[in-house]
Amino acid sequence: MFLQRIGNKGIRLGTLFERAAARHPASLVILDHDLDIAPELGRRATLTEVADLVDDFAARLWAAKVRPGERVVVHKSDNFDISLLACSIVRVGAVPVLLSPKLDGVTVAELLRRVDQPFLVTDQAKLENDLPAEVFGLSERVLLTSGSYSGALELKSLAGAARVPAITMPPDYPTLITHTSGTTGTPKLAVHTGHTFQSRYRPQGTIVAMAVKKSEPIALHVSFVHSRMFTAMPISVLQGHPLIVLRDDDPKSVGEIFTQVPPGFIEAHPNTFLRWEVLADDPGKPLANVKYFSSTFDAIHPRTVHTLLGASERKQPLFAQAYGQSEVGPIAARTYTKNRGADADGRCVGRPFPGMTGVRVVSRDGKTPTKQSPGYIEVSSNGRIVTYLGEHERWEKQADEGWWRMGDLGYRTKWGCLHLLDREVDEIPGIESTLEIEDKLFARVPELIEVIIVQDSKGTPVPVVCTRDDVPLDQIAWKSAVADLPKMAPPVQWRLDDLPQTATTKIKRLELARLVEEQKNGPQRKASSAAAEPADEKKSA
C-alpha cells in the first residue's frame, strides 16, 4: 500500500538502539528480570547502555565467525536478551532465526534442519534439559549465552572482542525469521525483510506518535521471539518512551512494577490481559495511569476490556484491538471506550488502515458473506512476509497476487467493519461463532479465566473451562449461562497451565480437542468434568 512504501528504507534493527540512544541517551529500559548475557547491567539501563551491549555482542558474534548472510538460530531460556541478541546478529549482517523457548527439542531439531546448518545460540539449561544431542550435527557451531557445555563456545569467553562497524544489508534482504504459532502443527518459518518490517511498523507507529506523549512509559509483555516485539520495541525507543519489558505476567509482580513506574500505554497478549483483570481491584491502583491498552495477537474478550478500562483513571482511556497475523502484521483495528465496550459488536475487529492495508472477504457459496454464511478473510499489506523458509509452496497456497488468506472466517458489515467469527479449522457445524459464544460465557460467568469450545469426534461442541484459583465451576451459574446458547456437552474443567499454548499464550485448539478426546476415551486419563470433581484434583493435560 502506498503509505507503507513512501520513504521505506527498512527497519534497520542492527542500529536500532544506537539510533535511539543518539536521540534519547538517558531514556530508560526497565526490566522485571536480569539479562542472562549481562546480569551486571541490572534491571534499569539507559538506551546508551543497551546500545553498547548490542554492539558488544555483535563483536563477540563476529569473533565467533558469524558473517553477513549467515543464519543464526536463537533458542534459549526465556529472556529479553533474545530480542537484543537478534539486534546484534542483524548488526553483523546475519539473519536471526528466533525459536520460542516453549518449543520442544524435537521441533527445534526439525526447524534447525530446515534452516540448513545455521549457528545456534542457546544455553546450558536448554542443552541439558530440552535439546537432543543431534543439534550439534545440525548446526555450524553452537554458541552459549550462559553456562558451559562440551563442544559449545561460550560467548563470555569472547568478552573484549574488537568492535566492528555495523553492516546494513539491503532493505529487501531477509532481516529476521520468526515462526508461526504452530496451532495447527509444526511451526512455519516466516521470512521478513527490512522493507516488510518497516511497512508493518508504520500503522501503529503513526498512531502511537500522535496519541502518546514521550514522557509516558510504554509497557510490553510480548513474546521475545514474536515479530510484534520488533515493531513494538522500535516504536517505544525511537520515540523516547521509557520502556518497561516484562517476562513475567504474574499479577502481583506486575502490579508492583506498574505502581512504581505507572505506564501510560500497555501492550500484551489477550490472555495476559485476562490474567491482569485482578489488578483492577489492587489498592495500589497499578492501572490508574493507563491511557491506552493494546492487543494484537488474538480475540479479546469483552469482560476483560470492560474491567481494564474501568481500572484507568485517565480521561477517556482506550482499548485498541488490532487484527493481524505474524505473516502480515497489523491489518485492521478498532478502539473501545468505557461508554462503548467490546460487548457492543465484540466480534468486530475494526477497519483497515487507510492507505496502508486492505481487507476483502471471499464467498464460499457464491453469495455475499454474512454472519450465517461467512467467507474467507483475505488481506493486503506491504508488511507481508516474502516466503516460508524451505516451504515456499505453502506460502504460495495462501498468497493470491497481493492478497493473503488469513485462515479465518468472517464478513463485513455495510459500514465496512470486519467481523471475525472463527478460524477455518475451528468451525463447528451448527454454531455461527465459537468466539462469540465464548465472549458471552465470559460475561455471564465471572469466575472464568478461560473457556475454549472444541469439537469432539462426534461433532459435539465441548466447553473446556478454567476458573480463577481453580475453584470448582458453579454449575447453577453455568446452566443459566448456557440456557439460550446452542446445545453443548457438559463443561470440562482444566487448570489453565495444563492447556496447550503457543509462545503468545494462544490456546492450541486442535491439540486441546485431541487431548480432551484422549481424556474422555483413554484409561490412562481420568475424566475431569467440572461437575464431577474439584479443580485441584484435575489431571494434567
TrEMBL record:
Q: Which Gene3D superfamilies match?
A: N-terminal domain of ligase-like
The residues covered by the AMP-dependent synthetase/ligase domain are 17-384
List the InterPro entries: AMP-binding_CS, AMP-dep_synth/lig_dom, ANL_N_sf, ATP-dep_AMP-bd_enzyme
Pfam families tied to this protein: AMP-binding
PROSITE patterns given for it? AMP_BINDING
Organism, as annotated: Streptomyces silvisoli
Return the annotated region ranges for Disordered: 516-541
User: By what name is this protein known?
Assistant: Class I adenylate-forming enzyme family protein
